[in-house]
Amino acid sequence: MGHFEKGQHALLNEGEENEMEIFGYRTQGCRKSLCLAGSIFSFGILPLVFYWRPAWHVWAHCVPCSLQEADTVLLRTTDEFQIYSWKKVIWIYLSALNSAFGLTPDHPLMTDEEYIINRAIRKPDLKVRCIKVQKIRYVWNYLEGQFQKIGSLEDWLSSAKIHQKFGSGLTREEQEIRRLICGPNTIDVEVTPIWKLLIKEVLNPFYIFQLFSVCLWFSEDYKEYAFAIIIMSIISISLTVYDLREQSVKLHHLVESHNSITVSVCGRKAGVQELESRVLVPGDLLILTGNKVLMPCDAVLIEGSCVVDEGMLTGESIPVTKTPLPKMDGSVPWKTQSEADYKRHVLFCGTEVIQAKAACSGTVRAVVLQTGFNTAKGDLVRSILYPKPVNFQLYRDAIRFLLCLVGTATIGMIYTLCVYVLSGEPPEEVVRKALDVITIAVPPALPAALTTGIIYAQRRLKKRGIFCISPQRINVCGQLNLVCFDKTGTLTRDGLDLWGVVSCDRNGFQEVHSFASGQALPWGPLCAAMASCHSLILLDGTIQGDPLDLKMFEATTWEMAFSGDDFHIKGVPAHAMVVKPCRTASQVPVEGIAILHQFPFSSALQRMTVIVQEMGGDRLAFMKGAPERVASFCQPETVPTSFVSELQIYTTQGFRVIALAYKKLENDHHATTLTRETVESDLIFLGLLILENRLKEETKPVLEELISARIRTVMITGDNLQTAITVARKSGMVSESQKVILIEANETTGSSSASISWTLVEEKKHITYGNQDNYINIRDEVSDKGREGSYHFALTGKSFHVISQHFSSLLPKILINGTIFARMSPGQKSSLVLCQCRCKLILCFQALKMAHVGISLSEQEASVASPFTSKTPNIECVPHLIKEGRAALVTSFCMFKYMALYSMIQYVGVLLLYWETNSLSNYQFLFQDLAITTLIGVTMNLNGAYPKLVPFRPAGRLISPPLLLSVIFNILLSLAMHIAGFILVQRQPWYSVEIHSACTVQNESISELTMSPTAPEKMESNSTFTSFENTTIWFLGTINCITVALVFSKGKPFRQPTYTNYIFVLVLIIQLGVCLFILFADIPELYRRLDLLCTPVLWRASIVIMLSLNFIVSLVAEEAVIENRALWMMIKRCFGYQSKSQYRIWQRDLANDPSWPPLNQTSHSDMPECGRGVSYSNPVFESNEEQL
């Protein structure tokens, strides 16, 4: 695969999350015939291998060729998993449209190659090559020579082009061509037939191995265990198929309604028609009426405005206002034509349009942007259908572990072949015994045993109101060492309480008007701004919208209504939103205020603006937003000189501060014709709105618990930096003894290059700091003693962007101690989380899909936005999730160790017996496999999570030294015990004498059943396995399986102590009791059934002594050495071991760097030393060493 023909290799979805490599292949007849013959002669094994390895299927059937000539394409993901799949290239024929519309290669629609859809049509035969990958259709672009996604409008289109080309709809011919090439506008999730799910599950390599094992056992007449495995497999498969079927049905019903919506579509010649949503194509013109409608596609609003509930996408059912895409000159792509987020013009599929407000033309119009699985909802559904595989070291180590067992089995097979061939056994017996070794060394029950720990953890999480759609991630939670929190609604309460308002005039800020006093705010521009500068809507007589807007409006005691038909003011549409003073209000000179136009709030812009008309008064513009942003749009003389210090007074107390401003507008302009730039200039500063955002009661104790467990906590917020610092201090994220270092980075301006400065934040001394973006008290000097303390870095989204661009070498060093990130836009949050992921395993309440583990606080049982959803609306779920993750991880390790030991104990015992051409009987195997191991495997995992988080994590790897040492030591211990028992029994004085003397109990029936191994001719047919070696090895192996389970069942510090797992302890007691009963009972019928011989009591006592010694040595070694963390840390120090992880290297480098952090310094991007050094190590947040 290293060398490709020209045009054979390309990238699909370049730069996107689902990026793939694509290779061209052409099917060859002779290769196909050879593969068919191979499939027949291999009895179906070859197709099975091709099913498991799709790349081999393509390489066997096809020859490489260019993508243009290919009839088959091989796809490979570009992530670390490199997953292969293959697709057939299919043709779409447009000849059917030829007769209906007279389409010919010379038709104007065919010759216009401006759009991808036209470039994909091959002339003169009018057909299109395409492939369908993960529900998305890709067509071959003949002009550019590549496969491109179809079903969306082109990103390069300018707003002017969208208005011009699609503003009056598509012709019927255009619609039909697009319909044929793009496919239907449906999100089809077919309910997978049970037979298909069954076949897919049965063809899993694990079940194929089980099938092989079962066939072998039937050939050896080992029917009981074979039936037991069949029953367990049937139950396991049935539960999996049932679960998958339920998910499939649930998802089908979830999206079914999307495919049958009736919409109004305007055609260029046909006019407005009522059509089914499935026939929509990109470029269609939708007409939205005032009724509620569920969006069947993504569409860009070009006329009128809409209020939309985006709860399906965001999880927050707060109405969002959408504005029309302005028609701007130039060829700039419409998504990047303004600094504001383009999403404010887009109506997303699956969201509900609550209100549609027409503009002057009387209609609300939107152009279809994307259809089917290309839409926002389609993308979410695809993420459920095709989830990203979890990359976790444990799963990679598990494969290596199984390969080691296979290697061990191979050695055993060679040994078996040698022993049995030399002893002259028949060939079929030799083959059977050799294959037996594989099923002994590689236990078929291993995968089932490993998943039980995760299932139990998932059940315990569900009881706590934490739901999971990706169970594999529970183990990942056990390795988390950093948690990123949002502030509002996560650390602090959802609702904001309006604390007061500070108005200002030419003399500066006035006294605070407290709403707690019950006095109404006096009439003035500030009162008008609070009454009208919001995005609230009136729905069924109820005011709905953002909680902040709601609190602000309620404080004015005004009312909201729609204007009537008799409402006639120039430029004001009928049925406009009007706010009026309540009847009890006095001294308000206006009847009301009509809201004419909104420029909605955007987190990127940090502000919103409205144009309003006072009834019988002036036309005004009001702005509300982040104080520093609003002040920058105001006339400087209107902003009080004490602005910075006044703002500081409130932000240092943790209040949320919003600024308000206004200006008068001319009445002769229509509101919708005014651009945002014109309105948002030369404003008059009105004052500050002070809102109280209290911490949730659970926040501080949870953060303290995480910090004491050395799990780093980070805050990422869109709020003011000083407010974020205050909340970080109040919540305990930054302790009183720790310092906060403010990092400010500025873009290149004129002659000066980009700069970065480091300043220590002082909490008590109030010093004005005149930077417009951050208003924080700065400490002028820092004593040398201050350096010895621990530091946290605080920075804004602007600084983060500049550092990413110009100081990228410093970024990882800053992230190690970066705790407070404020004024972060959604894009910056995603970038930050992605950077953090490279350093640590993180859990996140922001950019949920970017983190290793995402958790959303929602009332719903599951959210497609994150693997975990907590019904409890606070961060108490975080420690629970980490504790359960750690418990599940330790449980997985316990089960790995136990299953390895169980298989090795049986393996050693059987190989020793093979030396005498003997083996364990079927009932002996059955007792060990079913009565001992299966019960232990089911109950060993029941331990709950330990209630306290300890300041270190469990090992994240199976091949860590303590774990490997534990397994190897116990294997050697069991081997030594088995060999000792095997040799000692042969040296007993009663071993070669007549059978009557082998037992102390003089029982004729026992004497008849027990016979000397030196006289095989006397043995009965059922006694081929009966020997003193067999009896000794079986008792040693069986009871050893029980003692090993007790030794390996871990309790503290990650799981509840073993004695709390009552079922497991009871099972062990019963199993041990039964084994000792069999050993000492002398029941002839029982001995005959189990193919055991009666031995003297002294020898039985010797067996118990050997097992006791084995148990004591194993337990002491496990507790004193394997689980002794202090010992391993000392060994690491003695040998000078240092972690190889990049994160640890940065920490070590900076621990020895006296110049870090560079306080009271400013560096420029053109200075060679600005990126020197690495990062400062914060001892409070130092997580445990690279796992032992």
From TrEMBL:
<feature type="domain" description="Cation-transporting P-type ATPase N-terminal">
    <location>
        <begin position="146"/>
        <end position="222"/>
    </location>
</feature>
<feature type="transmembrane region" description="Helical">
    <location>
        <begin position="434"/>
        <end position="457"/>
    </location>
</feature>
<dbReference type="InterPro" id="IPR059000">
    <property type="entry name" value="ATPase_P-type_domA"/>
</dbReference>
<keyword id="KW-0547">Nucleotide-binding</keyword>
<dbReference type="GO" id="GO:0006874">
    <property type="term" value="P:intracellular calcium ion homeostasis"/>
</dbReference>
<dbReference type="InterPro" id="IPR047821">
    <property type="entry name" value="P5B-type_ATPase"/>
</dbReference>
<dbReference type="GO" id="GO:0046872">
    <property type="term" value="F:metal ion binding"/>
</dbReference>
<keyword id="KW-1133">Transmembrane helix</keyword>
<dbReference type="GO" id="GO:0019829">
    <property type="term" value="F:ATPase-coupled monoatomic cation transmembrane transporter activity"/>
</dbReference>
<dbReference type="GO" id="GO:0005524">
    <property type="term" value="F:ATP binding"/>
</dbReference>
<dbReference type="InterPro" id="IPR001757">
    <property type="entry name" value="P_typ_ATPase"/>
</dbReference>
<dbReference type="InterPro" id="IPR004014">
    <property type="entry name" value="ATPase_P-typ_cation-transptr_N"/>
</dbReference>
<dbReference type="InterPro" id="IPR023299">
    <property type="entry name" value="ATPase_P-typ_cyto_dom_N"/>
</dbReference>
<keyword id="KW-0460">Magnesium</keyword>
<dbReference type="Pfam" id="PF00122">
    <property type="entry name" value="E1-E2_ATPase"/>
</dbReference>
<dbReference type="InterPro" id="IPR008250">
    <property type="entry name" value="ATPase_P-typ_transduc_dom_A_sf"/>
</dbReference>
<dbReference type="InterPro" id="IPR006544">
    <property type="entry name" value="P-type_TPase_V"/>
</dbReference>
<dbReference type="InterPro" id="IPR023298">
    <property type="entry name" value="ATPase_P-typ_TM_dom_sf"/>
</dbReference>
<protein>
    <recommendedName>
        <fullName>Cation-transporting ATPase</fullName>
        <ecNumber>7.2.2.-</ecNumber>
    </recommendedName>
</protein>
<feature type="transmembrane region" description="Helical">
    <location>
        <begin position="896"/>
        <end position="915"/>
    </location>
</feature>
<keyword id="KW-0812">Transmembrane</keyword>
<feature type="transmembrane region" description="Helical">
    <location>
        <begin position="963"/>
        <end position="985"/>
    </location>
</feature>
<feature type="transmembrane region" description="Helical">
    <location>
        <begin position="921"/>
        <end position="942"/>
    </location>
</feature>
<dbReference type="Pfam" id="PF12409">
    <property type="entry name" value="P5-ATPase"/>
</dbReference>
<dbReference type="InterPro" id="IPR047819">
    <property type="entry name" value="P5A-ATPase_N"/>
</dbReference>
<comment type="similarity">
    <text>Belongs to the cation transport ATPase (P-type) (TC 3.A.3) family. Type V subfamily.</text>
</comment>
<dbReference type="InterPro" id="IPR023214">
    <property type="entry name" value="HAD_sf"/>
</dbReference>
<feature type="transmembrane region" description="Helical">
    <location>
        <begin position="225"/>
        <end position="244"/>
    </location>
</feature>
<dbReference type="Pfam" id="PF13246">
    <property type="entry name" value="Cation_ATPase"/>
</dbReference>
<dbReference type="InterPro" id="IPR018303">
    <property type="entry name" value="ATPase_P-typ_P_site"/>
</dbReference>
<dbReference type="GO" id="GO:0015203">
    <property type="term" value="F:polyamine transmembrane transporter activity"/>
</dbReference>
<dbReference type="Pfam" id="PF00690">
    <property type="entry name" value="Cation_ATPase_N"/>
</dbReference>
<feature type="transmembrane region" description="Helical">
    <location>
        <begin position="401"/>
        <end position="422"/>
    </location>
</feature>
<feature type="transmembrane region" description="Helical">
    <location>
        <begin position="1061"/>
        <end position="1081"/>
    </location>
</feature>
<keyword id="KW-0472">Membrane</keyword>
<dbReference type="InterPro" id="IPR036412">
    <property type="entry name" value="HAD-like_sf"/>
</dbReference>
<dbReference type="GO" id="GO:0015662">
    <property type="term" value="F:P-type ion transporter activity"/>
</dbReference>
<dbReference type="GO" id="GO:0005789">
    <property type="term" value="C:endoplasmic reticulum membrane"/>
</dbReference>
<feature type="transmembrane region" description="Helical">
    <location>
        <begin position="1031"/>
        <end position="1049"/>
    </location>
</feature>
<keyword id="KW-1278">Translocase</keyword>
<feature type="transmembrane region" description="Helical">
    <location>
        <begin position="1101"/>
        <end position="1122"/>
    </location>
</feature>
<dbReference type="GO" id="GO:0031902">
    <property type="term" value="C:late endosome membrane"/>
</dbReference>
